[in-house]
Design goal:
7-stranded parallel sheet; 28% strand; 32 strands; alpha/beta; single chain
């Protein structure tokens, strides 16, 4: 039985602007909001929108992401027909074992999509935090009789030149596409979320792959080709929460916004649009008798004996007595020893901050990579990027 729509999540990016956080982890598998990973958001949006067939194009550091996805059970995607599938590159016979671009990642999986004979394909990013009803987006696409639709958000005109922009008429039909233009003609920023009629997309993917000069990219090649050929292209205006968390600052800011749902627009407690995740088997959190916890998310398995203020703590974090954590994001298994101070920073999984050490400060966001140790009495200054363990008493700028 054919599926009306198949979702394809692009989850193969290296995430180089997250520096040490993605040294050992694919960006979609990075922790977010205490108990989630970034990929939970597009997966949950699919399930909540009634999409039950999802392909995830993986590439860089795929093991942790593959293990996390598993059979898809946490998202109700463990299906006999459909469900979730991780899709690594496979064109070794053609001299490559790597996706060459976003369009090539879909091209290499044409046979997967064809096996479900869909009418539509929705292309999603695996590195955004967004709560979006794709069913409403699909309704828009059908009503317009579109060949291609793209989700857009209005951004501040002063920031518009940082984005790929869609110029649209009064009926939302796209007339021009600008990639990070110095002089913007529009403030409709592409969210990198597309719906295509599958027969149209397949045709353009095959033509793009046959072009030796193509970058095999949706923004640089596929969308301009659609415009050139006068295809029916429409901009779907989205007004909900959307953040590209591709930088240290943006990832930290989005985590802080989770603590303020009334003003930020992201509510992880929303019963009507749940975000699902694979949960660790850990006991309840433990808050010690002299602990202070203020306006923070503290996930299962945490042991808090010190001070935690305005912070997000993932599963199994330990904050010892006398330690202070403030305006910080601590990922799974991080340990902050007695007397240490952690402020305005991100600690990746299983980081250990030694007794009396200081990580971060009042300025730009510091971060420490997975499994590293900050020695007792060491200092990691604001904005520092830590790729290797820091010796006792050492200072890192």
């Amino acid at each position: 039985m054919a599926k009306e729509i198949v979702a394809m999540i692009l989850a193969g990016g290296r995430g180089s602007r997250l520096y040490a956080l993605t040294q050992k982890t694919a960006k979609p598998a990075v922790s977010f909001g205490g108990k989630y990973r970034i990929v939970d958001f597009p997966l949950s949006n699919c399930v909540n929108s009634g999409i039950d067939t999802v392909g995830i194009a993986t590439q860089y550091q795929p093991q942790k992401l593959n293990e996390y996805i598993g059979n898809g059970q946490p998202w109700d995607l463990d299906r006999l027909y459909g469900g979730v599938h991780t899709l690594p590159p496979y064109e070794q016979a053609k001299g490559t074992d790597w996706y060459k671009g976003t369009a090539n990642a879909i091209y290499q999986n044409i046979s997967f999509i064809d096996s479900y004979d869909p009418e539509y394909v929705i292309i999603l990013s695996g590195d955004q935090i967004c709560k979006q009803d794709y069913a409403d987006f699909l309704r828009f696409h059908k009503e317009k009789g579109a060949d291609f639709s793209v989700a857009v958000m209005e951004v501040d005109w002063k920031e518009a030149s940082r984005f790929g922009l869609m110029v649209a008429d009064e009926n939302d039909r796209i007339t021009e596409f600008q990639e990070k233009p110095p002089v913007p003609k529009s403030n409709l920023a592409s969210m990198g979320i597309y719906i295509f009629n599958w027969d149209i997309l397949k045709k353009y993917l095959e033509e793009d792959e046959a072009d030796p000069n193509s970058k095999n990219d949706f923004g640089m090649n596929i969308i301009p080709a659609l415009l050139r050929d006068g295809r029916k292209m429409y901009a779907y205006r989205f007004a909900g929460y959307w953040r590209d968390v591709g930088t240290i600052d943006s990832l930290w800011e989005a985590n802080m916004e989770v603590l303020d749902p009334e003003n930020s627009g992201i509510d992880i407690f929303d019963e009507k649009w749940k975000i699902y995740s694979r949960n660790p088997v850990l006991p309840a959190q433990k808050i010690g008798p002299r602990a202070v916890v203020e306006n923070s998310l503290v996930t299962e398995g945490c042991k808090i004996y010190g001070i935690v203020k305005h912070s997000v703590l993932s599963a199994g974090v330990v904050v010892e007595e006398g330690a202070t954590v403030e305006d910080a994001v601590l990922m799974d298994g991080a340990v902050v020893k007695a007397g240490a101070v952690v402020k305005r920073c991100i600690l990746a999984e299983n980081v250990v901050v030694g007794a009396g050490a200081v990580v971060g400060g009042e300025g730009s966001i510091a971060h420490v990579g997975t499994g590293l140790t900050i020695g007792a009495g060491a200092t990691v200054k604001e904005g520092a990027k830590v790729f290797e363990s820091v010796k006792e008493g050492e200072e890192v700028c």
